[in-house]
Amino acid sequence: MKDSVIQIRNLSKSFGDMDVLKNVNLDLYSGENLVVLGKSGSGKSVLIKIMVGLLKQDSGSAIVLGQEVSQLNQKKLNELRLKIGFSFQASALYDSMTVRENLEFPLVRNVKNLSKADKDKLVEEVLDGVGLIQAINQMPSELSGGQRKRIGIARTLILKPDIMLYDEPTAGLDPITCMDINNLINQVNEEYKTTSIIITHDLTCAKVTGDRMAVLLDGHFGNTGKFEEVFEHAADGRVKSFYDYNFIEQ
Amino acid sequence: MAENLKGNDKVFSRRIDNFFIGLERAFQFVKKFFIEVWIPPYEFKEVIRQCYRIGYNSLPLISLTGFIVGIVFTNQSRPSLSEFGATSWLPSLISIAVVRAMGPLVTALIAAGKVGSSIGAEIGSMKVTEQIDAMEVSATNPFKFLVVTRVLASTFMIPILVLYTDFVALMGAFLNVNVNEMVSISTFFVQVFDSISFLDISSSMIKSLVFGFTIGMVGCYKGYNSTKGTEGVGKAANSAVVMAMFLIFIEELLSLQITNFFRQI
Q1: Domain encompassing residue A88
Q2: What ipTM does the predicted assembly reach?
Q3: Model-level pTM?
Q4: Which are the contacts of B86, defined by CB distance < 8 A and separation ≥ 6?
């Protein structure tokens, strides 16, 4: 059995009267790609935001790399965040900076004594890895949706994280670009030896990138397991309809 | 009827609650600024970049406005002074009006519109598009990078812009006086500097610092606390301007009382 790098235990979170997560339990094992699926508003993004301390749970625990996130002081939390790459749904590139400056931003603030040559080399290496070296001096507004996603992923990779959290990596992209992003996720996993959580409601993305699926239904994880176990032989009508809807064209 | 009154009471009390909650939130925001500003790492490069944006980019608008204010004020004051045969006092009158009140006020109001709204909209849209969250997860303090730098830049740059506005407004006034009264530039500026005191300059600079701080702080606060969505960004920009202008007028009134107190000592 591999080590568990993230342990979620009895975690609950509500916004006002709405209970989004209800006593959720989840383990992420070293080296795996876990796909978290669920309808919009089911609390998938909330879950990974709790893992990096952007949101605080109401009860329960989120233990990441052996540390309870909600108990960490700012310094310790920042140290932990450097080990986690977070790819945002809308890429969250800094509009006022070029692609190079976007990538340098976490680097110059977190890596001490880095020469300009080293910095340039790292930026170019990572950009080359996502296939967008030619965009180095462009502004985010000049990039397409898929390119922005790639740059967003590159920015998180520059600090060589142990864990990658992808929030809806294929949302709003055409099927071909979706496939490119899916392949990039697998490539990152292989090259950087990361452990990943991929939040999505795109079953193609889930099938291509995920080792294990976890479906979030009504604030709980209903089914977990391999893709075929969870979807193709789903007993739960809601999971089955999720599958039918996604693959209806096939 | 009674139920209606009860409902109105509830709405009223909720509004009062929200007002005090907002006040407390704003106080905490300002307090956080004064704590974060001393803690390293310092974002000098970003402060310089913001100084350039706030200062240099405001120059064309400030120049035009200052120049027109100088000409118009001179023109409007001339008839009243000429009734007493005192048009020779024009330079003194204009210098006092420009340095004590109009320069700082005009600059601050224009900056509130231009700088305040741009800060509010920029930070608001960064919030909406999760750029602030992205900074946070890359172990960077977004408050320090976005808020502290912009507030410092606007606090430093508004007094410089005020000095520049004073100069441009006086040049506009000189042009008008020169054309109408044939006064030379040296005579004009001798009269200008004779009529303003150290207290005038220092009070003008101090209140400009306060205006700059207000514009930066209100813009950042409104942007940072904007609600989700593009509508929220627009609201943040708009309320940053309205709130900053309102506070500038109140500060102007207070500074007038304080300066008058020192003038009487």
Answers
A1: 34-42+73-211+222-246
A2: 0.91
A3: 0.89
A4: none
